[in-house]
Amino acid sequence: MSMSAPSQSRFQWFLVSFVTLGTLSLVTIWVVGITGLRVYLVGLFLILLVTSEVFPPLADGQWWRRLQVVKLVGWLITFSLLFERVIEVV
Questions:
Q1: Do residues 22 and 44 touch, judged by C-beta distance below 8 A?
Q2: How big is the chain by its Cα radius of gyration, in Å?
Q3: Against a cut of 0.85, is the pTM above it?
Q4: CB 68: neighbour CB atoms within 10 A?
């Protein structure tokens, strides 16, 4: 199953943006001095959410359905990290 040209172009823009912003955020948090993996993963998840909203497919493609599953898993991990922090305080 091949993608249409506009959807493939959006997918390429999504990948380029996600990889570029992910790399820049890694360098930025390293320069600032934050070395926590959790901070980077939460930031990467936020980048994933933003880039997936900026470059949605024109037609519902297979890559978009897979991305929705990845986003759902990301939300579950984020909520579990948040829950863990709240439990530490309580």
A1: yes
A2: 16
A3: no
A4: 12
Q: What share of the chain is helix, strand, coil (3-state, %, to 5)?
A: 80, 0, 20
Q: Which residue range is the domain that position 70 belongs to?
A: 5-89
φ/ψ region of 33 (left if φ > 0, alpha if ψ in -120 to 50, else beta) reads left
pLDDT at 39: 83
Per-residue pLDDT of the chain (90 residues; tens, 9 = 90+): 455 666 677 788 888 999 999 999 889 988 988 878 888 888 889 999 999 888 887 766 777 888 889 899 989 988 988 898 899 888
Structure tokens at 15: 């990948």
Q: What's the CA gap between 69 and 76, in Å, rounded?
A: 11
User: What is the count of structural domains for the chain?
Assistant: 1
Scanning the chain, the segments in alpha helix (DSSP H) are 5-32, 37-54, 62-89
Q: Are 24 and 51 in contact (CB under 8 A)?
A: no
